[in-house]
Amino acid sequence: MKAGVRQRAAVFISLLPLISLVLLLSPIPATGAEDEGWPLSILKFAGGLASGALIHEGSHALVAASTGTHLTWEAGTYNQPIGFTDHAKSDANGLAIYSAGFIAQAAGAEIILQVDGIDKNDNYVRGMMAWNVVNPILYSFDYWVFHRTNKKNGNTYQGDLQGIENYSNQTTANMFAASFSAVALFQGYRLLKSQTWAPDWLKGESHRLGFTPLRSGGLVMTYQFRF
Predict the structure, then answer these.
(1) Total-model pTM
(2) Residue 210 lies in a domain
(3) Distance of alpha carbon 158 from alpha carbon 152, whole angstroms
(4) Domain residues for 27?
(5) What per-residue confidence (pLDDT) applies to 227?
(6) Does residue 226 form part of some domain?
(7) Which of 184, 203, 206 lies closest to 192, judged by CA?
């Protein structure tokens, strides 16, 4: 097998868990009192994705404004729909601007998961969570493997992780990539556990109380504990 083919195969295999997660989080028509068909489900899911992207980019703009940094906006790439060029006056300002997107996504996903009043099975929420989970992981793979969003060409660069490296160092960028990918995976796992279709073993139901009828009459109470 040629080296290029092996590399592509390795990348595909490494992305299989991510592909599975996207498929599991894809829009599902609601059932019950508030029935919604595929068109509305897809629209809500897409709206959630767009909202997640806007929160990500909006956090960059907010931190830039708070530090008095001018940003020049431009078209982005597959996992960075909107890109920007910064004019940061210090390394601290640049690092804060480029790390803001990851921090905002992780915080937003945690709020969704922690607040009981937010319906985790709503397709709009699924869309937001899909962005919050998938985007940091794609960013990391891009920084380590693909180099499409994160590029460096002489004195120019693009991509959040490349920006973090530029205003700090490669070790810091790798730490951001690894830590926020791990957080995203854990948040995705917790979201899957909250889905109505999730099996009991995924929901983490380690114990169950039940009753078994007896032929002679009466019931036997059983307690199942999984370990």
Answers:
(1) 0.74
(2) no
(3) 7
(4) 3-199
(5) 43
(6) no
(7) 203
